Amino acid sequence: MVNYIWRLVTLGRKNNAVEIQKALKEEFGISLSDSTVRRVLKKAGFIAFVKPQKPLLRSQNIVKRLQWAKSHQHWTVDDWKRVIFSDGTKVNCFASDGKAYAWKLPHEELNSLL
Asked: Which of 37, 40, 113, 114 has the smallest number of Cβ neighbours within 10 A?
């Protein structure tokens, strides 16, 4: 079981204890609490870390945004006064606003995991 958990984390297929817990239930029919999974990960040498948030932009969206910005860079203040800015809508794409945790080995860098 420990080897299976190790593989799930090192291969990057599962990031947190709840995902690993569900995988163990589906694969082996084993019911473990998420705290037990965390304890096993800690004993195996893994370190929990908070995943940094990054914008959900694909490369083509980045290019489109840059093109839009370049086409509007010469606008005057009067031009911008005719624009209505709205930031009233809040959308969560994947999860709540809470922190997302993952596991890594002490020698691993975050860039290779994200």
From this structure: 114
